[in-house]
Amino acid sequence: MAEAKAFVTGHPIAHSRSPKIHGYWLAQYGIDGSYQAIDVAPADFTAFLRSLGDSGYRGGNVTIPHKEAAFAGVARRDHAADEIGAVNTLWFEDGLLWGCNTDGYGFAANLDEHAPGWAANGPAVVLGAGGASRAVIHALKERGINDIRIVNRTLARAEELSRHFGAGVSAHGAGAVGELLADAGLLINSTALGMHGNEALAADPSALPGHTIVTDIVYVPLETPLLAAARARGLKTVDGLGMLLHQAVPGFERWFGRKPDVTPELRRMIVADIEGH
């Protein structure tokens, strides 16, 4: 049987840690397979999708800026992809190219690992209304959270998401964040605030109750200003690296036939890579 091949594509793509994650699992499980990064410019992406059937690849991951184009370009999509409006994982099934979105799965699995029982914690405040927040809101709804408050600088974008996701999802401008935090059980930053070079505090956790879980989808740095401030207050915090690791699991299982484990060793390897850059 031919070597199983998969890929990640984006533009640029050299920074992607996906080859390290999947390479680790291929080695760990002794699978005869490969996973490579392919840089595809936006103008070439549709042709790239069309060529996949003859390429020998079983599928791959799609990252920025191609997730919406992949959503439009696949033959079939799963429910999560339809809800989130983007595709990050491709595979072939019955000769057709399928697309799914595993970001919401990765977000929830990260919290399952580090804050078991998180979904029973009550109202969730989501900072930001971009593509990442769509995956977060989808995951929250799937876990039965029925009070989700989107806070965004541009209120119209938050309102668009609240309409899309329907009952239990409300939209608020940035000025309302203080009062929204007073009874929140979950605070999620889905914005780029807190990333290296953008070190502003996404929200002030001093207004939060003592039982709130605070998580950030940013993982460079691992401890963002928001997480540091929440930890200083004694709150439970969960960094964003686990979301990256867990979202990779469903794709690997589809392409290589084995559901991989997100191990402490894998996390240490990726942390070392982050700190080495």
From TrEMBL:
Entry keyword NADP: yes
Pathway: Metabolic intermediate biosynthesis; chorismate biosynthesis; chorismate from D-erythrose 4-phosphate and phosphoenolpyruvate: step 4/7
Keyword Phosphoprotein: no
Active-site positions on this chain: 67
Residues annotated for NADP(+) binding in this entry: 128-132, 152-157, 217, 240
Catalysis: reaction(s): shikimate + NADP(+) = 3-dehydroshikimate + NADPH + H(+)
Ranges of residues in domain Quinate/shikimate 5-dehydrogenase/glutamyl-tRNA reductase: 124-192
Keywords for this protein: Amino-acid biosynthesis, Aromatic amino acid biosynthesis, NADP, Oxidoreductase
UniProt domain SDH C-terminal: residue ranges: 240-262
Gene Ontology MF annotations: shikimate 3-dehydrogenase (NADP+) activity
Similarity comment: Belongs to the shikimate dehydrogenase family.
Protein's UniProt name: Shikimate dehydrogenase (NADP(+))
Organism: Mesorhizobium argentiipisi
Lineage: Bacteria, Pseudomonadati, Pseudomonadota, Alphaproteobacteria, Hyphomicrobiales
